[in-house]
Design brief:
Layout: H1 9-20, E1 42-45, E2 48-53, E3 63-69, E4 78-83, E5 89-93, E6 100-105, E7 112-118, E8 125-132, E9 139-144, E10 151-157, E11 163-171, E12 177-185, E13 188-189, E14 200-203, E15 207-212, H2 213-216, E16 225-233, E17 237-244, E18 248-252, E19 262-267, E20 271-279, E21 286-294, E22 297-299, E23 306-309, E24 314-320, E25 328-334, E26 344-351, E27 358-363, E28 371-377, E29 388-394, E30 399-405, E31 415-421, E32 426-429, E33 442-451, E34 454-461, E35 470-474, E36 481-484
Antiparallel strand pairs: 1-36, 2-7, 3-6, 3-8, 4-5, 4-7, 8-9, 10-16, 11-15, 11-17, 12-13, 12-14, 12-16, 17-18, 19-25, 20-24, 20-26, 21-22, 21-23, 21-25, 26-27, 28-33, 29-32, 29-34, 30-31, 30-33, 34-35
Length: 496
């Protein structure tokens, strides 16, 4: 029998990169984790990141700003480019720590796809912010460009009269992606007529397909539902564009994946209406406690302390003006820890009243982790309006974080501060750190130094004609490093 030559660490790393689509920079050897002499897993910076951004608007008066940043300091070579389907670059990042911006007008702004490599890959982020000053889809629409995947949950969608919800599916690859979209209402899964195959949407390479949710349920008027997007072949980025008559428009990002405990960070202090939409994907019912984390700790909203979800059915809870003048985050947990059931959730948030209302969404998010960034933050305007508010929540133990503001896209000096958070509390920074002497949008990076977990969100407000136009983006671990298994000891684990 022919013997197989032992794999080197470099060969194992290459095999892992080929299997996952990611490569890694060289890292020092890991220190043994215990007395057995076995090497602990090493963390290595990723060498390639992929992002997709959907077409921002169908309005002729839309004004869109794209911003991009890789956090950190300059050094090392790399590329980071977002381009349209023809390969024309819209954003071209040059070095870490220095954000770039570009603008587009009207309804012709395309979907973008791109990749960052080398020194620009770890933590690469991009943001698109669109302002539509009038019309049915008026509002401030913000979205962090997303990494492609195969499974997305969107609690908070609707097929009701006066709502137009479209799932945007963006394919970054050179092959066709096949995607299924299903809706779950308060009575369960909406099914086609018996014998009718489930619709599957083909998304051409490096392009976007829009799916009208109302067309998936032509005979139903669902005030609140949950959309489930799954790629049957290939991968896509998925986001939902929402426009609501008289209330504005925004993007609804995907919720964090099903979990028995969720945090929904960054409810604005002056929210006039907050509605929780949640869904239990399995067959088991879920009983959840509902608490609002504020500056002094978590409280239970009077009469709204619990939410019961039937398995496979979408449930809602109207929380009204739950924040009452202080920004906060919603905490969901199993009422009985011994009967924990995974759920997904999002909040529909309204600011303003009557004809001056504006709509936004706050989905459940993952923790900041080691580091997370949100781009396109703005300085306060001349009227003193708080353009950028950073909300930090320590959902478990006490925590310490570092917040770094990058230079502006037109220069300036970045700024850094460290903040200690008491467990269970939420702190709103109004304003957060900002670059000195800088002009143009800037990025905020949050790093967990100790304790936690910490959840964070940024609220951007750009008022227009008395309307508090706003959008909320959550921070999520940028996954700038990857844990490499104990390959030196047992490389076969990568090949199983």
């Amino acid at each position: 029998m022919k013997q197989r030559a032992p794999l080197t660490l470099a060969a194992v790393t290459a095999a892992l990169a080929a299997a996952t689509g990611l490569a890694f920079l060289t890292a020092p050897a890991a220190t043994p984790a215990d007395g057995t002499g076995r090497a602990a897993a090493a963390r290595m910076p990723v060498e390639r990141s992929v992002l997709v951004c959907p077409a921002p608007s169908s309005s002729d008066i839309a004004e869109t700003t794209y911003t991009s940043l890789t956090p950190g300091k300059g050094g090392g070579s790399g590329t980071a480019r977002l381009a349209d389907k023809d390969g024309k670059a819209v954003l071209d990042l040059k070095e870490p720590g220095k954000p770039v911006a570009a603008t587009a007008s009207g309804a012709e702004a395309p979907a973008l796809t791109g990749a960052a490599e080398g020194a620009l890959a770890p933590g690469w982020t991009a943001q698109q912010t669109t302002k539509v000053s009038a019309g049915h889809a008026r509002g401030l629409l913000g979205l962090a460009c997303t990494a492609p995947g195969t499974d997305f949950w969107f609690p908070g969608v609707s097929t009701a009269k006066g709502r137009q919800d479209y799932v945007h599916l963006t394919n970054p690859d050179d092959t066709v992606a096949e995607v299924a979209v299903k809706l779950h209402g308060p009575d369960g899964l909406l099914k086609d007529k018996p014998g009718t195959p489930d619709p599957v949407y083909e998304v051409a390479p490096r392009s976007t397909t829009k799916v009208s949710l109302a067309q998936l349920a032509p005979d139903s008027q669902l005030a609140d539902a949950t959309a489930h997007v799954t790629a049957r072949s290939g991968r896509v980025g998925a986001s939902v564009h929402v426009a609501e008559d008289g209330t504005g428009a925004d993007w609804l990002p995907a919720s964090a994946g099903p979990a028995d405990t969720l945090v929904l960070p960054g409810i604005p202090a002056d929210a006039t209406s907050v509605r929780l939409v949640a869904f239990a994907p399995g067959e088991d019912d879920a009983d959840l406690t509902v608490k609002l984390s504020g500056p002094t700790g978590p409280i239970s909203p009077a009469g709204k302390e619990r939410l019961h979800l039937k398995g496979g059915m979408t449930g809602t809870l109207d929380l009204g003006d739950v924040t009452r003048g202080e920004a906060g985050s919603l905490l969901l947990a199993p009422a009985d820890p011994g009967k924990a059931v995974p759920v997904v959730a999002a909040l529909r948030v309204v600011r303003g009243t009557a004809a001056k209302q504006e709509l936004g969404f706050v989905p459940a998010s993952t923790p900041v982790g080691e580091r997370a960034t949100v781009a396109d933050n703005r300085a306060d305007n001349r009227a003193g309006d708080k353009a950028t508010v950073l909300t930090l929540t320590a959902s478990g133990a006490d925590a310490k974080v570092r917040v770094t503001a990058s230079p502006g896209t037109e220069g300036g000096q970045g700024a850094t501060t460290e903040i200690t958070l008491k467990g269970g509390t939420t702190r709103a920074l109004t304003p957060p750190p900002a670059p000195s002497g800088g002009k143009g949008p800037y990025a905020l990076t949050v790093e967990t130094l100790s304790g936690g977990p910490v959840h964070a969100a940024r609220t951007l407000t750009l008022p227009h004609d008395g309307i508090p136009m706003f959008t909320v983006q959550a921070f999520g671990d940028d996954r700038s490093t990857v844990s490499v298994p104990k390959a030196a000891e047992d490389p076969s684990i990568l090949l199983r």
